[in-house]
Design brief:
Elements lengths: L1 E6 L13 H5 L1 H11 L12 H7 L4 H13 L14 H17 L7 H20 L4 E6 L1
Antiparallel strand pairs: 1-2
Helix pairs in contact: 2-5, 3-4, 5-6
């Protein structure tokens, strides 16, 4: 499993590949650090349009809509019909806060070097997205 960045353009003018495996593998640890530091955890940037969720769950779109309606009625947070987009500045705040914490406290997370590598890739892409006035959301590759 790996986290990756989806931009609100099909053809960005820069490379968007990230490994993202360390951010995914240690997302619980990183979420705790982010919350303690007062920034959004990366999983708060996750978004999947309902059509994509239907495909992932092998449901028709109508079945997925029924499932989402039922999940909302029970207090859940299912996918929306459209993807939710976020400002790169918000993601950069999270990435930079985590980078700063892990650099200063490498012993508080497993594989600090791998996590820092993924965070550097996220920072690079989100910086370029911000400069290009793009939006983003987090996705998960299973």
């Amino acid at each position: 499993m790996a986290f990756y960045i989806v931009l609100n353009t099909e053809t960005p003018s820069f490379e968007t590949y990230v490994d993202g495996k360390m951010l995914s593998r240690y997302s619980d640890d990183l979420s705790k650090i982010a919350i303690e530091a007062g920034v959004k955890p990366f999983l708060d940037f996750f978004s999947m349009p309902l059509e994509e969720a239907a495909s992932e769950m092998d449901l028709s779109f109508d079945e997925a809509e029924d499932w989402a309606e039922e999940a909302r009625a029970q207090g859940g947070n299912p996918p929306s019909v459209e993807a939710e987009w976020f400002s790169p500045a918000e993601g950069l705040r999270t990435a930079r806060t985590l980078q700063k914490h892990i650099t200063a406290n490498a012993d508080t997370v497993p594989n600090a070097e791998g996590i820092l590598f993924d965070l550097q890739q996220f920072t690079q892409i989100l910086s370029e997205a911000e400069a290009s006035d793009l939006k983003w959301h987090l996705a998960v590759d299973y």
